[in-house]
Amino acid sequence: MDFQLTDDQRALRAGVRELLVRRFGRERLRAAVGPGGGGSAGRRAVGGLDRALWRELGEAGFFALRLPEERGGVGLGLPEAVLAFEEAGRALLPGPLVATHLAAGEVPGAATGTCVVAAVDGSLVEWLDEADVVRGDVGGAVALRSVDPLTPLHRVPRAAPPDPVAALLTAAEQLGSAAWTCALAVQHARTREQFGQPIGAFQAVKHLCSEMLVRVEVARAAVYAAAVTGDPLDIAAARLLADEAAERGARDCLQVHGGMGFTWESDVHLHLKRAWSRARRGEGAAAAEEALAEDLLTSAARSGA
Amino acid sequence: MDLSYSAEDEEFRARLRKWLGEVLPGLPAKPSADDWPGRRAYDLGWQRLLYDAGYAGLHWSVDAGGRGATPTRHLIFLEETEKAGAPYVGANFVGLLHAGPTIAAEGSARQRARWLPPVLRGEEVWCQGFSEPDAGSDLASLRTRAWRDGDDYVVSGSKIWTSHAEVADWCELLVRTDAQAPKHRGITWLAMPMDAPGITVRPLRTLAGSAEFAEVFLDEVRVPVANRVGEENDGWRVTMVTLSFERGTAFVGEVVACRRVLGELAREARKNGRWDDVPLRRRLGRLNAEFRALWRLTQWNVSESERGGGVPGVGGSVFKLRYSQARQELYDAAAEVLGPEALDLGREWTVDRLSSLSYTIAAGTSQIQRNIVAERILGLPKGR
Hints:
A: Butyryl-Coa Dehydrogenase, subunit A, domain 1, B: alpha+beta, 46% helix, AcylCoA_DH/ox_N (chain A), AcylCo_DH/oxidase_C (chain A)
């Protein structure tokens, strides 16, 4: 047993992070979000997808990561995909990443990033109007005024059957987001001064930050383990913990930022809104909890206890 | 990221299982909770069996008399012994997990030869005299005094939360030897023989009704200077060498046990009809996620310490924070499953629920753990 990242996995993670910092850093993120403000706040149309970036992701192997080499892919596995999606979540990278990744090898151009693929996930479709190919039944799709300024959403009447791999990659994005909001909160707590000292010296703030890290590390162990086993119940567990880490992490990060956290200018709300939207993918928390409850009965029966 | 065990590790597991299958049916009946001499004999007997089979001090270094096993082997040992229903470490806890490793790391050759083998062979019991009525979370403010008189230290003061004090042979004792020095620099580590004159042990009844702990009163107790480990006034550093969670394996058996209890809870709920309560059922499902993740975090921490040469990390604080809370949530859920019977002390889960209340306090309160995580991992400034 060596449940730690290999050198290759570390290098892959660093490579994806470097690419995203270079191509989708904070300035690019804020440009994509727009200024908000004025009478159009929250009502403005979501900006389009950056197709040049999409192709660059394709060239870097983001979508073809798990496709076998003989089919033009990178030939890696779920653990590597999870690391790449964790970085995407950290960078708040927009677009139907999971759908396009899952379409690699099945939809021409998906693997290389020349084709943008959207898919029904749960009872929602992200980026429907921007996609070149849409998978799943989108008959009767109705546009929502999406709470997440970087994720256009449609609601569909017929939910798609759950895909455990999609749930796992979503959990990886949630994990990356949770790790980033924790880091953001800590950075603010170190530098923001009130009452003559950094607010991070106050235990009330310190303890919020510690709990954020605990949720991140527990979710990380669950997400990485699920990537290794590929077991649907491990994935269900990973998903519950990663959703919790991302949603509560973003809220606590907002709290640590005080009034500034409530502004459009801050990045915190972008993480919170995306975390909310990711948590609606797939079957939802209730189904994951039911599956894990049922497992308690069946695994106890299996062990003959 | 690899969760599979090597062929050698699986062979170790198979041999251990076989041995447990042979030896456990022959164990004497478990003594009752109040029978301290019986508990001592039972726990030491188990340790002797481990010693004879080559499993004693599995995680201790070879030159300390241990087996020098990797953290992964230790994980397997703790997992399998718990699954097989083997006895807990019990009265051997302080000797095997704290005083012993401290002596192994900081003691002289003579001290190691005197104190380590009896711990491994199951011949001597140690207890811990650290906390005091006025020195809990702020342990370094301890006030039990010791002064030199010839070849002895003379010790006066009182200690609290001392497990197994009634039946211990030795106490690893922290005393103040320099009242003028900054609080961390005036402390000395002594091995105190528990039969020395001047020691009074008074059982301390917990809210669960049992006397798991004791208060220890010291009235001019003489401890030979030769029993000091490390230098005078260097006891804080000596203690901190081992006062972190052992290589991420501190709660392995407990997590295995919690997962078993969770399965039992589900079956009990199915039997008594509570399974149809959707919020309760979902709560049990979430607890399953929780304990699966805690098991994975254990494997993560063990692998990390194995890569780092067996050095425990601050990751133990992260684990303990979440685990202590999860354990309390588990037994709160058990109470929901039991319904009115949750008030019946005849139900094991009722007593376990009471005991779970100590988990967010013992071995560093959750508040102290959060300070540790914030300051040592996240790098937030130290508060006042």
